[in-house]
Amino acid sequence: MKWHRLRLLGCFVGALLIGHFPCAQAMAVEPSPSNSPPLNEKELLPYKPKGRATAAGQVFLSSPSGKAFTQAGVSIYLIPTVTYTRSWFDRNIRASSCSSKREPSTSEKTTAAASSSDCLRHILDQLLSDKRLLPYLRTTRANPSGHFWFTKVPAGRYYVVSLLEGGSGPHKEEHSAGMAWLTIELEAEEKATNLVLTDCKSSFC
Predict the structure, then answer these.
(1) How far apart are the first and last CA of the chain?
(2) What is the full per-residue pLDDT of the chain (205 aa) written as tens digits?
(3) Beta-bridge mates of residue 186
(4) In a domain, 7, yes or no
(5) Quick check: is 108 in a domain?
(6) What's the sign of the alpha-carbon dihedral 78, 184, 113, 36?
């Protein structure tokens, strides 16, 4: 108890001396440790052959001003939903493990954007580096307007994920890195169109 009081007193004195409150600043959020369940390749077998379904849509993020921005040529991944990938997705993407809950100051935004980009890239690389999973993943790229297409997709449930780290058009200073994602279920020969792949931080979702 005494140590706790002394620590609080030290923070308060530091705030008076240097004009801000360093102890209240949020620490950078690190990705969760890898505690994924084992990969069961039997769950993935239905996703390996070519199918007859298609999926098409647009990938974009929302800028701080509320406008959408795209990134030409960005990769979009179609990831089968199985026990292994569900654990990765829920732990790292749905839970937004790279985001700080504190609103950064103007001077911190550039550094925060770079840190977030590195964190998100690391999370995605964790999955893509698993060579056992690669035969079951499908990848495409967005055109300059952010539109994308997947063809010859087998029926099943999928995560659609894309990491955007830049943008096209004016006001590039507003752009920041982010993970756009979507969950879909495709039936055999289904043609899913107008899919919206974004970060769900705005009214676009």
Answers:
(1) 47
(2) 444 444 444 444 344 333 443 333 333 333 334 567 999 999 999 999 999 999 999 999 987 777 888 999 999 999 999 999 999 999 998 876 675 444 444 444 444 445 778 888 999 999 999 999 999 999 999 999 999 999 999 999 999 999 998 755 555 545 567 899 999 999 999 999 999 999 865 444 5
(3) 156
(4) no
(5) yes
(6) negative
Which residue type is seen at 143? N
Tell me which residue has tokens 């990969």: 39
- The CATH number linked to 136 is 2.60.40.1120
Task: Please tell me the distance from the alpha carbon of residue 105 to that of residue 20, in angstroms, as a whole number.
Answer: 12
CA distance 66 to 58: 17
Q: Are strands 178-186 and 68-69 parallel, antiparallel or unpaired?
A: unpaired
Q: Any alpha helices (H) in the chain, and if so which ranges?
A: 2-18, 41-44, 83-89, 109-128
